[in-house]
Amino acid sequence: MDRIIDNLAVIQPTFMGAAPRIFEKAHSRIVAMQDREGGIRRRVFEQAFAVARRRRTYLDEGRRVLYLLGKRYDILDKAVLAKIRERFGTRLRFFISGAAALNPDIGDFFGLAGITILEGYGLTESAAGSFVNRPESNRLGTVGQVFPGTEVRMADDGEVLLRGPGVMLGYHNLPAETASVLRNGWLSTGDIGRLDHEGRLTITDRKKDFFKTAGGSMSRRPIWKVGSRRPVPMSPTPSSSATTGPTASPS
């Protein structure tokens, strides 16, 4: 894994897909390096992210960035943030993260450094990718919009259903298993989610994480999420938590 990160500056990719662990590892190395240096270097590092966050707030709200704030950002970007970007090559346009949920604080950290991470979602049964965020409309915590040519709908219980050219014809020599997940061309993903008004999908649960009670269905997933989330040691002003689902088979 360390070699992958080190080789990015040599390979100079324009984009790359990776599991969240790659970004967590890169983040940890950057933070550990600042911890070792300490003193003024660490304070400048923290200031760079604080200023970048203030600048982004202006941009997100459609306001003009104040002159002095813009100048401070330019200086700190050159001193700190640009050096982080250089570790991933000078041609990089974006990363795509899949296979597991991306910690939103990790995505926020790299976003402030000027490195875009787009979350995506899919399953083996749907030929891997089915959703992905777009660079021009990226929203952390969602897996973006459905691929062109693929249809999505939500079942009554919130399960994500997919239909399109990437959906499998069936499991080889397993008709019963095929019938359990394919109905009239619609693939039952086993994931629970919701779509926003722009068609972005957020995965909230696995269907098998629900259990029946006298009062209806309940999820044991929130307890699991609290217990399993890795804390991020140095992401200035951490963002609110959001959960996306794994890019994996529902089985």
Largest sheet: 5 strands, mixed
Count, helices? 7
What is the rounded Rg? 20 Å
Which structural class do the helices and strands define?
alpha+beta
Report the order of strands and helices: HEHHHEHEEEEEHEEEEEH
Approximate helicity band: 25-40%
Detail the poorly predicted runs. Answer: 218-251
Strand proportion, as a percent range, falls in 15-25%
According to DSSP, the number of beta strands is: 12
Query: What name goes with the CATH superfamily?
Result: ANL, N-terminal domain
Terminal Cα span: 27 Å
Envelope shape: elongated
* Number of structurally distinct domains: 1
Provide a descriptive summary of the structure in words.
The protein is of the alpha+beta class and 251 residues long. It has seven helices and twelve strands. The chain has helices at residues 2-11, 20-37, 39-60, 67-86, 104-112, 175-181, 221-228; strands at residues 15-18, 94-97, 117-123, 128-132, 145-146, 151-154, 159-163, 182-183, 186-195, 201-206, 210-213, 216-219. Helix 3 (39-60) crosses helix 4 (67-86). The longest helix is centred in the first third of the chain and has 22 residues, at 39-60. The model is unreliable at 218-251 (pLDDT under 50).
Top keywords for this entry?
five-stranded mixed β-sheet; disordered C terminus; Rossmann fold; alpha+beta; 7 helices
Write the layout of secondary structure elements.
Elements: H1 2-11, E1 15-18, H2 20-37, H3 39-60, H4 67-86, E2 94-97, H5 104-112, E3 117-123, E4 128-132, E5 145-146, E6 151-154, E7 159-163, H6 175-181, E8 182-183, E9 186-195, E10 201-206, E11 210-213, E12 216-219, H7 221-228
Helix pairs in contact: 3-4
